[in-house]
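Changelog note: in this version the structure field was regenerated for every chain. One regenerated record is shown below for reference.
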Amino acid sequence: MSSYLAPLGLPDGAHNFSADAVYFRFRDADNRPVWGVCSYKQVDSALYKGADPEVTRSAIQKSVCLVGRGDSPPWRAAAARLEPIAHAFIQHQDSGVLHGVYESLKTVADAPDELLLELRSVLAKYDTRMLTLLKLRLLGKRVLFMSSDQPTELMCSEILALEAAAPGRPMCLPYITLSMMDDPVVAQCQGFVGASNRLYKQKWREQFEALVENNNLLFADKALERLVSPTQADLRFVDWLQKMCRQSRCHWEGSEEWLRSQLEDYLRGLRLAVEASGVEGDKLNAAYGVAFVQEISRQDEVVRWLSPYGEGGESVGGGDIASKSASTIAAGRPDPGGHPGAGQPSLQDVKLRLVHHAKGFMAHFNNL
């Protein structure tokens, strides 16, 4: 574990930002889950009291790291506690702030598992690509996120928010450094991986099946792109989610909890599609994508992840699903029970499909 801390504490390209944060996960030698938060600061050498006289660089870079164990890291609480400590210790050279830090930070482990970034923000940024990314995650595809021109913290937060929306939530790697390129930990990860070194982008097709950069989603294989491409029901569903999420946070509809409940409905419908047969099964398969449902059905682990969704109208997240369903029906969405975006074809469908194709064309053009 110690071999990872030094490169993770000072992320690739850290000199481009005065402050940043890194979130990481991996397993130790005993296969126990380990998580960590590193708060990075960059200080002008001339203002740093403890600088070595032989230092010739104009800035000094330091990082304070918090490492813990467990499957449900308290990301938000850990980051909130660590940032002021790092600020005082690095930027103000206040070593006294370290006294009692260990005892203070031990209570972080008891904090709730709160995300750093709302899924609403991820939806606003990625629109239909959010569902595509969740499909890739369900299939266990290796997806590389690049953040060469933005703080690493934002990329890590997006990855963790997406990971939390997928059932099962096995290990992801919110951030890796260049020194980890050939590490077995990276090679064995089947999911989202974050990086900021441009060398990863140059070789991404050798190690990964999809690339996310600057809101764009690229595929190494056209067959995979077709497999996870949004169906018409997917496009309707995301369009409806976006409209509802643009409303006031004071309402249940459009809130963060509401959005997660709708994604649970989506997974519940997918579970039904995997199990259904006959005419009803054909309808469900078409709504989610026939080839996609067939591929999901072949993966026993994914089917097991989906098993808690569906029976009796209950979701993994709990809550009064009946009342939630009633509110969504009143808002104009079809009755849950299959794909939440299922419905009769309309002129709006043509518009949604054209917009989707236009965005795909622009993404391809921007990456030529």
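Spot check on this record: The chain has a mean pLDDT of 84. Residues 89 and 231 are 51 Å apart (CA to CA).
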